[in-house]
Amino acid sequence: MIAQDIEKILLSEEEIENRCVELAHQIEEDYKESGETPIVVGLLKGSVPFMAELIKRFEFPCEIDFMSVSSYDGTESIGDVRILKDMDLSCKNRSILVVEDIIDTGRTLVEVKKMFKNKGCLDVRCVTLLDKPSRRVCEIEADYVGFEVPNEFVVGYGLDYNQKYRNLPFVGVLKPEIYQ
Ligand SMILES: O=P(O)(O)OC[C@H]1O[C@H](OP(=O)(O)OP(=O)(O)O)[C@H](O)[C@@H]1O
Ligand code: HPA
Ligand SMILES: [Mg+2]
């Protein structure tokens, strides 16, 4: 059972779901005001459970798409952000809401935002389930944050360690013996 590899649970499924309701309302208010139809772009693979939980609560018109960029090997940020799969929709002159599972060093979000600006997007915002500000190497913040987490490697609810644990319905910290 993969839950046995977890040392402690940081965020329960219920806490995450309740926060998604709040975030969705906040985001909805902002887009209703601007009248835009954003493209909600999930960054694969980590954003999938959070994105599913969030967008079903949006009551404003939006389109969805996905991109895959990768910058982690195990628990290490490898610095250079690679695009593994680009989005299908054209993003020129569109508003983009990037959905992330976590902002850690900030490198991924910096590169992704730069890329969207270069493609002629009108506006690029980001919603992230988790924020780990203690690890930042780039000056960047998400526009909407679910929870701040401490400087520990977290898994579950989309977040992986070597591709495992994404399917856990909560966010937790792995037992050290798993990755040491
Ligand atoms: O702020 P950063 O230090 O750049 O880290 C955050 C990024 O790293 C993880 O992605 P990863 O590259 O592991 O891909 P994944 O979503 O497929 O796990 C995570 O999903 C974020 O996209
Ligand atoms: O704490 C983390 N857990 C899983 N993936 C990650 N990618 C960046 N930080 C993390
Ligand atoms: Mg990962």
From TrEMBL:
Q: What UniProt keywords are attached to this protein's entry?
A: Cytoplasm, Glycosyltransferase, Magnesium, Metal-binding, Nucleotide-binding, Purine salvage, Transferase
Query: What are the TM regions of this chain, as residue ranges?
Result: none
**Pathway info:** Purine metabolism; IMP biosynthesis via salvage pathway; IMP from hypoxanthine: step 1/1; Purine metabolism; GMP biosynthesis via salvage pathway; GMP from guanine: step 1/1
Superkingdom assignment = Bacteria
Question: Hey, what's the signal peptide range on this chain?
Answer: none
Task: Tell me the SUPFAM superfamilies matching this sequence.
Answer: PRTase-like
Domain Phosphoribosyltransferase, by residue range, is 12-161
Could you tell me what reaction this enzyme catalyses?
IMP + diphosphate = hypoxanthine + 5-phospho-alpha-D-ribose 1-diphosphate; GMP + diphosphate = guanine + 5-phospho-alpha-D-ribose 1-diphosphate
Which cofactor(s) are needed, names only? Mg(2+)
List the protein's name: Hypoxanthine phosphoribosyltransferase
Report the source organism: Holdemanella hominis
